[in-house]
Specification:
Blueprint: H1 10-53, H2 62-83, H3 99-128, E1 137-138, E2 145-146, H4 170-174, H5 191-211, H6 223-238
Antiparallel strand pairs: 1-2
Helix pairs in contact: 1-2, 2-5, 3-5
Length: 239
Amino acid sequence: MPAHYRHPNFCESEDVMTSRQISSRLDSIEETIIAVILGSMALLTFANVIARYVFNSNIFYALELTVFLFAWLVLLGASYAVKKTLHLGVDAIVAIFSPNTKRIIGLFVVVICLAYSLLLLKGAWDYWAPYANLPPTEGRIIPTGFVEKFRGQGWYETQDIPVPFFLTWLADVFNDGEVYEKIPKVVPYLILPVSMLLLTLRFVQAGLRVWKGQQELLIVSHEAEDDVAAAAEKLKGQD
C-alpha cells in the first residue's frame, strides 16, 4: 500500500477522535473548576474555625465568600449534571413504554426543560446586567429587546469580600475609575447568566442525543445497576 494512501474513513475517524479529545478536555476543565470551588469552601471554612477557636479571631469575609462559592458550585454542577445525565428522576412509568415512545417522551421533556432554562436565562441576565452597567431585557416572559433607559449599578459592592489585586481593573470598567472598597457584585453574580447559558446548551445537546437515539432520558441511567447485577451473576456462577 502506498505510504500516502489513506483509508476513506481516516479523516472521519480523526475528526471523531479530535471531538472526543476536546470533549474530554472540557470535562476536565469543568470538573477541575467544581473541585477547586468545593476545596476552597472546605479550606476557607476550616481556616475560619481555626482562627476563631485557636486564635480568637475570624476571617470576616469567610461567610459571604462561602455562600457565593456554594452558589457557583450548585449552578455549575446543575449544567454539568445535565451533560453527564446525572440528575435524579423517577422513570417507573416511562420504563414500561417502547423505545420509540420513550424517545418521544424524551424529546417532549427536552422541550419543557429548554423553555424553563430560557426563562431562567432571561431572568439571570436581567438580574445581573445592571451590575455590569448593561441593559436588561424588555418583556415579562419573552424578551422583546433591551431597556433603553436603565440605572447602572456597577458601583454596588459586596458586604465584606475585599478586592484582590488582580481585579483592581474592575474600577476602571464598571465604576468610572473610583476604587472599590469591596469586590463589586458584578463578579459573584456573573455565574447567573453563565450557568443558565450553559444549562440551555446542555439541554440542546441532550435533545440532539435523544433525537439521534443515543440517549433515552435526561435523568441518571441504570447502567450502574446493570453492572452490579452482572457482577453478582458472575460471582454466583463462580460459586
